[in-house]
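Supplementary Methods, section 5.1.

A reviewer requested that the exact input to the structure prediction be made available. We therefore reproduce it here, unchanged from the version used in the analyses.
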Amino acid sequence: MDAELTLITSDRYELACSSASTVGRYACGFDDAGKPRSLNENETLRPYMTVGRKVYLIPGLFLQASVERRYKAEPANLPRAQLRRFTAKCKLKKVGELAGFKLRWAEKSPWSEPQTADVVTAETCDVAG
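The structure derived from this sequence is encoded token-by-token as follows.
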């Protein structure tokens, strides 16, 4: 399936989810108690939103070549308001669904109410912006 994801470079490490469940080898970076897990980036699920406001849980999105190039071009440690939003047009492959996870959009933000979303992998991505 095709999706246009809206991103800023700080999303690579600020976006997070929390759940006791896994989907195959993929898991949220935090357990259901909010304690961090020790996972590789390509196994860590993170919530990303499409321009149409649909949430997907995607492991290793910033390891995609075009997304990684965009990440390296703009320091993620700038204040969030100074980061330029960009779009990654990706071909996604569904690998499952995760129910009851919580998410947060920034490192210091509170966890959301439990949600359900598709777990997908990014097969290819092209970046605009």
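The chain is about 10% helix and 45% strand. These observations are discussed further in the main text.
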